[in-house]
Write a structure and sequence with these properties.
Layout: H1 2-29, E1 34-42, E2 45-55, E3 61-67, E4 72-83, E5 86-91, E6 101-106, E7 112-119, E8 122-130
Antiparallel strand pairs: 1-2, 1-8, 2-3, 3-4, 4-5, 5-6, 6-7, 7-8
Length: 131
Protein backbone atom coordinates (compact mmCIF):
# COMPACT_ATOMS: atom_id res chain seq x y z
CA UNK A 1 0.00 0.00 0.00
CA UNK A 2 2.76 2.45 0.90
CA UNK A 3 4.67 1.69 -2.31
CA UNK A 4 1.54 2.36 -4.37
CA UNK A 5 1.01 5.74 -2.66
CA UNK A 6 4.68 6.63 -3.14
CA UNK A 7 4.50 5.69 -6.83
CA UNK A 8 1.43 7.91 -7.37
CA UNK A 9 3.07 10.80 -5.52
CA UNK A 10 6.27 10.40 -7.56
CA UNK A 11 4.21 10.30 -10.78
CA UNK A 12 2.35 13.50 -9.85
CA UNK A 13 5.60 15.28 -8.90
CA UNK A 14 7.20 14.11 -12.15
CA UNK A 15 4.23 15.40 -14.18
CA UNK A 16 4.38 18.76 -12.42
CA UNK A 17 8.11 19.03 -13.16
CA UNK A 18 7.46 18.41 -16.87
CA UNK A 19 4.70 21.04 -16.92
CA UNK A 20 6.92 23.54 -15.07
CA UNK A 21 9.78 22.91 -17.50
CA UNK A 22 7.44 23.58 -20.45
CA UNK A 23 6.23 26.84 -18.91
CA UNK A 24 9.82 27.91 -18.15
CA UNK A 25 10.83 27.10 -21.74
CA UNK A 26 7.97 29.20 -23.08
CA UNK A 27 8.80 32.15 -20.80
CA UNK A 28 12.53 32.01 -21.61
CA UNK A 29 11.79 31.81 -25.33
CA UNK A 30 9.23 34.64 -25.45
CA UNK A 31 11.67 37.47 -26.36
CA UNK A 32 12.95 35.41 -29.32
CA UNK A 33 9.59 34.42 -30.82
CA UNK A 34 8.70 35.82 -34.22
CA UNK A 35 10.50 36.73 -37.43
CA UNK A 36 13.99 38.25 -37.53
CA UNK A 37 15.53 39.71 -40.67
CA UNK A 38 19.09 40.82 -41.34
CA UNK A 39 22.43 39.61 -42.59
CA UNK A 40 24.99 36.88 -42.11
CA UNK A 41 28.60 37.78 -42.91
CA UNK A 42 31.15 34.99 -43.38
CA UNK A 43 34.29 34.56 -45.52
CA UNK A 44 33.85 37.97 -47.15
CA UNK A 45 30.27 37.27 -48.19
CA UNK A 46 27.13 38.91 -46.84
CA UNK A 47 23.87 36.99 -47.10
CA UNK A 48 20.36 38.30 -46.47
CA UNK A 49 18.68 36.01 -43.92
CA UNK A 50 15.43 35.52 -42.02
CA UNK A 51 15.14 33.51 -38.81
CA UNK A 52 11.72 32.46 -37.46
CA UNK A 53 11.10 31.15 -33.93
CA UNK A 54 7.83 29.84 -32.50
CA UNK A 55 6.60 27.45 -29.82
CA UNK A 56 5.47 23.97 -30.82
CA UNK A 57 2.59 22.00 -29.25
CA UNK A 58 4.83 21.07 -26.29
CA UNK A 59 5.78 24.72 -25.65
CA UNK A 60 9.29 24.06 -26.93
CA UNK A 61 11.00 26.66 -29.11
CA UNK A 62 11.45 25.61 -32.74
CA UNK A 63 12.59 27.54 -35.75
CA UNK A 64 13.37 27.88 -39.42
CA UNK A 65 16.07 29.68 -41.37
CA UNK A 66 15.79 31.39 -44.75
CA UNK A 67 18.85 32.32 -46.78
CA UNK A 68 17.17 34.76 -49.14
CA UNK A 69 20.41 35.43 -51.04
CA UNK A 70 20.86 31.72 -51.72
CA UNK A 71 17.20 30.85 -52.35
CA UNK A 72 16.95 28.52 -49.33
CA UNK A 73 13.69 28.78 -47.38
CA UNK A 74 12.16 26.97 -44.39
CA UNK A 75 15.39 25.25 -43.36
CA UNK A 76 14.83 23.55 -40.00
CA UNK A 77 16.77 24.74 -36.95
CA UNK A 78 17.81 22.39 -34.16
CA UNK A 79 19.57 22.28 -30.80
CA UNK A 80 17.93 25.57 -29.84
CA UNK A 81 18.98 26.64 -26.36
CA UNK A 82 17.86 29.84 -24.63
CA UNK A 83 19.48 31.25 -21.51
CA UNK A 84 18.43 34.73 -20.39
CA UNK A 85 19.08 37.01 -23.39
CA UNK A 86 21.31 34.50 -25.20
CA UNK A 87 20.32 31.90 -27.78
CA UNK A 88 22.28 29.16 -29.53
CA UNK A 89 20.98 27.13 -32.47
CA UNK A 90 22.13 25.10 -35.46
CA UNK A 91 20.92 24.55 -38.97
CA UNK A 92 19.43 21.04 -38.81
CA UNK A 93 19.72 19.99 -42.44
CA UNK A 94 21.72 16.96 -43.62
CA UNK A 95 22.69 18.95 -46.72
CA UNK A 96 24.38 21.69 -44.66
CA UNK A 97 27.98 20.63 -43.97
CA UNK A 98 30.15 21.66 -41.05
CA UNK A 99 27.56 22.15 -38.29
CA UNK A 100 26.41 25.73 -39.04
CA UNK A 101 25.99 27.23 -35.56
CA UNK A 102 24.66 30.59 -34.35
CA UNK A 103 25.36 32.07 -30.90
CA UNK A 104 23.55 35.35 -30.36
CA UNK A 105 22.47 37.83 -27.73
CA UNK A 106 19.53 40.22 -27.61
CA UNK A 107 20.36 43.90 -27.19
CA UNK A 108 18.79 45.97 -24.40
CA UNK A 109 15.77 46.87 -26.58
CA UNK A 110 14.98 43.22 -27.33
CA UNK A 111 14.62 44.13 -31.02
CA UNK A 112 18.13 43.25 -32.25
CA UNK A 113 19.81 39.86 -32.09
CA UNK A 114 23.45 39.54 -33.06
CA UNK A 115 26.40 37.28 -32.51
CA UNK A 116 28.76 34.71 -33.96
CA UNK A 117 28.27 32.20 -36.75
CA UNK A 118 30.58 29.23 -37.36
CA UNK A 119 30.62 26.56 -40.08
CA UNK A 120 33.33 24.18 -41.30
CA UNK A 121 36.08 26.13 -39.53
CA UNK A 122 34.90 29.50 -40.86
CA UNK A 123 33.79 32.20 -38.42
CA UNK A 124 31.50 35.09 -39.14
CA UNK A 125 28.83 37.26 -37.62
CA UNK A 126 25.10 37.74 -37.93
CA UNK A 127 22.76 40.59 -37.00
CA UNK A 128 18.99 40.51 -37.35
CA UNK A 129 16.13 42.77 -36.28
CA UNK A 130 12.70 41.71 -35.07
CA UNK A 131 10.04 42.20 -37.74
Amino acid sequence: MKNSHFARTALVIGALAVIAAGVAQAQDAKPFLGAWKGALSVAGTQLEIVINFKLDEANKIVGTFDSISQGGFGIKLGKIEVKDKAITFMIDDPGAPGEPTFKGTLDETGKKLSGEFTQSGYAGTFAVEKQ
